[in-house]
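PROTEIN DESIGN WORKSHEET
SECTION A - STRUCTURE
LENGTH: 430
TOKENS:
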């Protein structure tokens, strides 16, 4: 990359960071007016399922969107679509409950129309006592405290279906669940859970739009054990051990520390014997095993004006080094296969990455949320910028999203087909 191009990229990046700096300055000025809510800071982690649930609840909405993208090298494309989203749960008796989550989308683009159906969750829960609950069916079990990358998430591979947004919270909520039997036991300050997911298929992403896609969610038999106990109100560790067919046991650890009244320091770790990501993408089953470890950690601060800022660092010793990454780019077939594989696995493309995430609720107007996300690869220095403005008006929700990828060809973000895109979405809740 020339010095001029490098300065231009950092100039764009600097302007974006300048906007983030303005948000921080405005929030810091408001800090002196009120105390932050502890619960806002602690909302980073996924909560355990509630033991007392409503007798009936649900959410149904329909949405439509239109998107315009500037493609590489110098073309444009547009597409539009509609989606129907359903989430429903029903308590049959004080001890039994049903839960269902489903989404149907129709997307029209120049390459052709596509209909997709995602059965995200469908399971029955049995609560024999106030301190235990058992689930059977398709469950979206989300693990990990980190926001942009979750090394300890045992069930994240090949289950991402809704790509209408880059927001990591929405992506985790909209993915396919895994068919499993799960038991959970609770006590004051701690919990124990165990899950077993059987193999139901080995052919993911079938051609049928309405297929339940068991091969994606349950390609092999897997198991998971989690244990957590908080020795102190400000410190909450969680241990996990997972494994399955064709995989060595993997150790997971999630830690969170409450610093002050509205700041959370968190870390997420996973380690175990495994092949490198390049070997796994190439299906080299006889490749050597070695101890591989992944980590994601950061800090989140919530200001009294409802602005939440997160900075996160991510690394994986299983991902390619700088030398490996440059060598891979010289082999187009291997490069393409690896990019497709790592996307399905939701892993890090290269060894290091970083992310900044800012969400400002009720920004300027009630029910108006502004979200900014910045991602940067630590090896090739390519970057991604995503900005969303979302406002709710009664039963209707309007949103505008903008994203841009910065980087030379074949870098993590420079290789993406869309250099820049804008999407407008309208959503109506029934």
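SECTION B - SEQUENCE
RESIDUE ASSIGNMENT:
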């Amino acid at each position: 990359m020339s010095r001029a191009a490098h300065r231009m990229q950092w100039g764009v990046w600097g302007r974006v960071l300048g906007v983030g700096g303005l948000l921080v300055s405005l929030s810091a000025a408001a800090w002196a007016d009120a105390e932050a809510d502890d619960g806002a800071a602690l909302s980073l982690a996924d909560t355990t399922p509630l033991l007392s649930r409503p007798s009936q609840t649900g959410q149904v909405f329909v949405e439509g969107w239109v998107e315009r993208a500037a493609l590489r090298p110098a073309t444009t494309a547009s597409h539009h679509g509609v989606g129907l989203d359903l989430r429903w749960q029903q308590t049959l008796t004080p001890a039994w409950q049903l839960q269902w989550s489903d989404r149907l989308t129709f997307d029209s683009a120049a390459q052709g129309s596509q209909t997709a159906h995602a059965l995200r969750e469908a399971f029955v829960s049995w609560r024999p006592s106030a301190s235990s609950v058992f689930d059977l069916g398709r469950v979206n079990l989300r693990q990990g405290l980190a926001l942009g990358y979750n090394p300890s998430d045992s069930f994240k591979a090949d289950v991402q279906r809704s790509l209408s947004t880059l927001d990591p919270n929405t992506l985790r909520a909209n993915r396919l669940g895994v068919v499993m039997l799960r038991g959970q036991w609770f006590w004051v300050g701690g919990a124990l859970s165990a899950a077993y997911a059987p193999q139901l298929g080995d052919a993911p992403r079938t051609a049928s739009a309405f297929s339940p896609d068991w091969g994606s969610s349950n390609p092999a038999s897997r198991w998971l054990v989690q244990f957590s106990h908080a020795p102190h109100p400000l410190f909450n560790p969680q241990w996990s051990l997972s494994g399955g067919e064709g995989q060595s046991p993997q150790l997971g650890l999630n830690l969170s520390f409450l610093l002050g009244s509205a700041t959370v320091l968190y870390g997420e770790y996973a380690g175990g014997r495994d092949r490198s990501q390049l070997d796994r993408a190439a299906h080299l089953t006889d490749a050597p095993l070695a101890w591989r470890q992944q980590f994601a950690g950061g800090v989140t601060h919530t200001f009294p004006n409802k602005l939440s800022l997160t900075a996160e660092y991510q690394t994986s010793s299983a991902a390619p080094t700088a030398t490996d990454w440059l060598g891979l780019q010289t082999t187009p077939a291997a490069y393409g296969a690896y990019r497709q594989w790592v996307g399905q696995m939701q892993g890090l493309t290269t060894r290091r990455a970083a992310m900044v995430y800012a969400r400002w609720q009720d920004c300027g107007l009630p029910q108006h949320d502004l979200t900014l996300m910045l991602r940067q690869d630590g090896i090739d220095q390519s970057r991604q910028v995503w900005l969303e403005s979302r406002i709710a008006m009664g039963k209707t929700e309007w949103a505008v999203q903008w994203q841009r990828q910065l980087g030379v060809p074949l870098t993590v973000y420079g290789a993406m087909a869309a250099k820049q895109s804008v999407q407008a979405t309208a959503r109506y809740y029934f």
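SECTION C - NOTES
The helical segments are 3-31, 38-42, 168-174, 214-217, 277-281, 322-328, 332-345.
Confidence is low (pLDDT under 50) at residues 1-54.
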